[in-house]
Amino acid sequence: MTAKDLKKGSMVEIRVNLSSEQINQPIQVAVIRCTEKYLWFKNNHLHRMGRNTFDTYIQHFGYKIISI
Q1: Phi, psi at residue 20, to the nearest 5°?
Q2: Is the pLDDT of residue 12 over 90?
Q3: How does pLDDT run across 22-46, given as a tens digit for each residue?
Q4: How far is it, in rounded angstroms, from Cα 40 to Cα 37?
Q5: DSSP per residue, the chain
Q6: What CA–CA distance (Å, rounded) separates 26 from 35?
Q7: What long-range pairs does 20-26 form, CB within 8 A, spacing at least 24?
Q8: Distances from the Cα of 33 to the Cαs of 7, 26, 49, 61, in angstroms?
Q9: Is the dihedral of CA 17, 30, 12, 66 positive or negative?
Q10: CB 10 within 8 A of CB 65
Q11: Is a pLDDT exceeding 90 seen at residue 18?
């Protein structure tokens, strides 16, 4: 699966730094809006990201697509 498969309501797992003690913690967030180029997420740590960037983060940083 890639970012082009994502749609509104899809769940993804991203890694964020919640605090200095909780670095690179996985959290699950929902996609709330999609366009051809961008994805918007329901989370304060990650608001918007390009689809190509999201695909790169899947390969290199352990982001995961949980459900479409």
Answers
A1: -70, -25
A2: yes
A3: 888 888 999 999 999 999 988 777 7
A4: 10
A5: --GGG--TT-EEEEEE--SSSSTTEEEEEEEEEE-SSEEEESSSS--EEEHHHHHHHHHHH--EEEE-
A6: 25
A7: 26/62
A8: 7, 21, 11, 23
A9: positive
A10: yes
A11: no
